[in-house]
Design a protein that fits this description.
Helix content: over 70%
Number of helices: 12
Strand content: under 5%
Largest sheet: none
Low-confidence stretches: none
Number of strands: 0
């Protein structure tokens, strides 16, 4: 990797981190950037997972106080996300590369549509939350995140907004927390058993950390409805892209 390519990957990482925090689709920028840097698809996928840990670290470091009020629940949620992330990484390393590809666009599209319909779904739910569905949903989404990860933030955000009454700003913080846990455990597995390109991962991570750090204050000043609709539209677009490629 040349110095110029390294710097370009850092820049791509920054925008992936910022866009990823706001919309949950960091991989739409980071994964193609790694392919453009010359990495083969599987290596780009696992390298991207390792690098995207930095997005959650950056955003969580800049908004950790907002997570503190959940206390012990964070431990349970982290366990669910970690379990799913490990299972997803194992699936990627042990199954054929295209084993999950057919389902991915449908899963992402379903999450995106639920985001668009979130106000109506919350209205139907009333004041109820879903304490049993919530952790199971986290685990299932984390499996997807450990396996492929593109759009996993959209899925986590949809789950949080539909199953709880959280404001989109706190939901975005929780989404990043769950994503970083799932990515971290998957990244450990990929570091031990996968073809990680460490120089590319370092370049992407540097930019992604900075982008993730800038994410929370950006989301905090944006109108919640605009953020929700924008994320949903981006999710549908990513689902269509994945279905056609």
């Amino acid at each position: 990797m040349t110095v110029l390519t390294f710097l370009l990957v850092v820049v791509a990482g920054f925008f992936a981190g910022l866009v990823g925090y706001v919309t949950g689709i960091a991989s739409l920028i980071s994964y193609p950037a790694l392919l453009a840097a010359g990495l083969p698809p599987v290596a780009a996928n696992v390298t991207n997972t390792v690098a995207m840990v930095a997005v959650g670290v950056g955003s969580t470091a800049n908004s950790g106080a907002a997570l503190a009020k959940d206390g012990r629940k964070l431990v349970l949620w982290a366990a669910c996300s970690a379990t799913g992330g490990i299972a997803g990484a194992a699936l990627l390393l042990l199954t054929p590369a295209d084993a999950f590809e057919i389902a991915v666009p449908f899963l992402l599209a379903a999450a995106s549509v639920s985001l668009l319909l979130q106000p109506k779904l919350r209205e139907l739910a009333g004041d109820r939350e879903f304490p049993r569905l919530y952790p199971l949903g986290m685990m299932a989404i984390a499996v997807y995140g450990g396996y492929f990860g593109a759009g996993v933030g959209v899925m986590f955000l949809a789950l949080i907004l539909v199953c709880t009454s959280e404001h989109i700003w706190r939901a975005s913080i929780l989404k990043s927390y769950l994503t970083v846990v799932a990515n971290l455990v998957a990244a450990i597995g990929f570091a031990l058993f996968g073809p990680v390109h460490w120089l590319a991962a370092a370049a992407m991570a540097i930019g992604a950390f900075a982008g993730g750090w800038c994410g929370p204050p950006v989301v905090k000043v944006l109108p919640p409805t605009v953020v929700r609709v924008a994320v949903a539209i981006c999710g549908v677009g990513l689902a269509a892209y994945l279905a056609l490629t």
